Design the sequence.
């Protein structure tokens, strides 16, 4: 009985605020302040407003996709190699590097943006994708390395030895044997890195002030002043739902993997 | 194989770190040279940029950051622990529970900020349910509470997941033994569950501490930038940087970095969350294998 109550309590705690956002996004602007548990009548008015000309919301979704996608891809490419080296190869200073990778995740984004803002202003990178992609790697890369190192360590070393006996070079053993085996781990890490970058805010809000290059998280935070309705809350809720949908889908399909990935670095 | 990583980290982490520390001792702009000409450039300013550290705005931001960190992390530990204890016993409906607990974690912080701003509107659902007329999102003491509620909502489930993972590796035989010895549930929790889950809990707290100390987007979206009652250190640094006050921004950034490093160091020392020794022992395993 208590157990059931506790479970319902947790589900309500997690879902009710989110539910309120979804419900509000389906109300008409006229009855946005209604407190009824379901919208009456249902309306797509807010969603139409989000994609209205001049809001730049569709564009910002594309920007988010480009930034998060590229960051994830580059991070995986670089991070997989590093994680494999850290998990398998023996060399001096390895522990220092692992410790550094952990320490890097401690750095406040606010400290990094100051010199990077100055640097990017000098080289003309303000309002470009790379001004968001490159700094985003400062948190995506440690996350990737940390997760994948844990994952590679769980694979038996004999696999590569067997491959090398069969005539593979060390690199071929990595590429042909280990990488396919590590695919689930790489995939999980990709999801985590993608979500982290998609949700990134401080870098995106600093490096870009041109509306057509803003990512979705920044764009919706700035809806307030630009709207032509008296309160843009309906629009904001609709935009919030749209920004969150890709992540909710990822969570629904890959929840088991995400939980495993989130807790892997913390336990071992 | 490590070199690409090193290059990236050098560019996006170590270069900014060093540059920020250097910048924090320099001042840039225009001044008159010895002949009375206006020259532009930057020059050594000593600790001038750090002067703001003892001023009201910085201290207020430091206080807000500390308050948010202490209160939210404490709440998250209690709530996360409770969630983990419930979820460990959950068998039916576990998948649904796990999916729903991931929702607050997955919602982007900026969206969570907007969502709570809407809930906390003057004529919003929070005031209706509570029967109050509080201006939650206006600059003032209630705004602090709004930020705390929103942050706790978003991150307590994450703590719960990490703690749950820690709970699941406690062997059930320990609990059976406790039961045989006649331990009450309360004793079981304090004497068995808590000590055994401590490592996982400490790691979760450490993650959250480092994250909470640099909180930026939630107060920015929920209440607004440059709002005294919720301005955090990251918010202050961002504001100075976007107004091209690079010197003070770097000085405050360096101060925040030192603050986080200090807290982490004290935490690791005091509570023995020995992350680095773990790295060392794992390195040893790898060597043994090789």
Sequence:
């Amino acid at each position: 009985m208590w157990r059931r109550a506790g479970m319902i309590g947790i589900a309500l705690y997690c879902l009710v605020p989110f539910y309120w956002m979804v419900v509000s996004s389906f109300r008409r602007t006229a009855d946005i302040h209604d407190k009824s548990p379901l919208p009456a009548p249902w309306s797509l008015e807010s969603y139409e407003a989000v994609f209205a000309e001049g809001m730049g919301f569709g564009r910002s979704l594309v920007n988010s996709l480009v930034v998060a996608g590229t960051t994830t891809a580059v991070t995986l490419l670089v991070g997989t190699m590093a994680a494999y080296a850290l998990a398998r190869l023996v060399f001096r200073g390895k522990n220092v590097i692992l410790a550094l990778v952990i320490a890097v995740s401690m750095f406040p984004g606010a400290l990094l943006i100051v010199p990077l803002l100055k640097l990017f202003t000098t080289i003309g990178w303000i309002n470009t994708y790379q001004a968001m992609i490159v700094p985003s790697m400062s948190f995506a890369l440690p996350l990737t390395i940390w997760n994948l190192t844990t994952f590679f360590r769980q694979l038996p070393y004999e696999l590569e030895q067997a491959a090398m006996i069969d005539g593979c070079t060390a690199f071929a053993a990595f590429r042909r044997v280990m990488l396919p085996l590590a695919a689930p781990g790489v995939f999980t890490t990709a999801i985590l890195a993608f979500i982290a970058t998609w949700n990134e805010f401080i870098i995106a809000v600093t490096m870009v002030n041109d509306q057509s290059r803003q990512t979705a998280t920044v764009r919706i935070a700035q809806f307030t002043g630009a709207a032509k309705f008296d309160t843009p809350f309906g629009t904001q809720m609709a935009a919030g739902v749209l920004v969150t949908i890709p992540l909710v889908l990822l969570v629904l399909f890959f929840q088991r993997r995400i939980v495993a990935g989130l807790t892997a670095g913390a336990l071992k | 194989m490590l070199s690409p990583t090193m290059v990236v980290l050098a560019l996006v982490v170590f270069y900014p770190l060093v540059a920020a520390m250097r910048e924090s001792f320099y001042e840039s702009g225009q001044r008159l040279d010895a002949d009375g000409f206006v020259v532009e450039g930057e020059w050594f300013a000593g600790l001038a940029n750090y002067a703001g550290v003892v001023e009201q705005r910085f201290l207020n931001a430091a206080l807000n950051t500390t308050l948010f960190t202490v209160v939210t992390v404490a709440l998250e530990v209690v709530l996360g622990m409770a969630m983990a204890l419930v979820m460990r016993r959950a068998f039916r409906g576990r998948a649904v529970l796990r999916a729903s607990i991931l929702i607050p974690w997955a919602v982007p912080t900026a969206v969570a900020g907007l969502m709570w701003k809407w809930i906390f509107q003057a004529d919003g659902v929070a005031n209706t349910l509570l029967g109050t007329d509080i201006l939650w999102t206006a600059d003032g003491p209630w705004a602090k509470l709004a930020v705390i509620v929103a942050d706790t909502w978003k991150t307590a489930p994450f703590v719960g997941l990490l703690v749950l993972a820690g709970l699941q590796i406690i062997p059930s035989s320990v609990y059976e033994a406790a039961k045989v010895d006649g331990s009450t549930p309360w004793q079981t929790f304090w004497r068995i569950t808590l000590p055994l889950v401590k490592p996982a809990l400490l790691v979760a707290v450490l993650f959250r501490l480092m994250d909470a100390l640099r909180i930026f987007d939630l107060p920015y979206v929920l209440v607004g930038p440059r709002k005294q009652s919720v301005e955090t250190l990251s918010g202050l640094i961002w504001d100075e940087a976007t107004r091209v006050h690079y010197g003070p921004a770097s000085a405050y950034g360096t101060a925040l970095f030192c603050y986080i490093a200090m807290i982490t160091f004290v935490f690791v020392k005091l509570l023995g969350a020995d992350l680095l020794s773990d790295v060392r022992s794992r390195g040893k395993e790898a060597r043994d294998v090789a």
